[in-house]
Amino acid sequence: MIIVLYENEDWLMPLVSSLEKKNLPYQTRFVNGGQIDISRTPEKAVYINRMSPSSHTRGHMDGVLLMREYLSVLEAHGMPIINGSDSFSFELSKVRQHSFLEAFGIQTPRTIATVGMDHFQEAVKEMKPPFISKHNQGGKGLGVQLFQSQEGFLNFLAEDKYENSPDGVNLLQDYIRPVNQHITRVEIVDGQFLYAINSSTEDGFELCPADACAMDDAFCPVGEESDTGKFQIASEINSETPIVQQYVAFCKHHNIDVAGIEFVENEAGEIYTYDINCTTNYNSNVEDKLGFSGMDVIVDLAEQRWHEFCATKNQ
Question: Rounded CA gap, 50 and 29, in Å?
Answer without folding.
Answer: 10
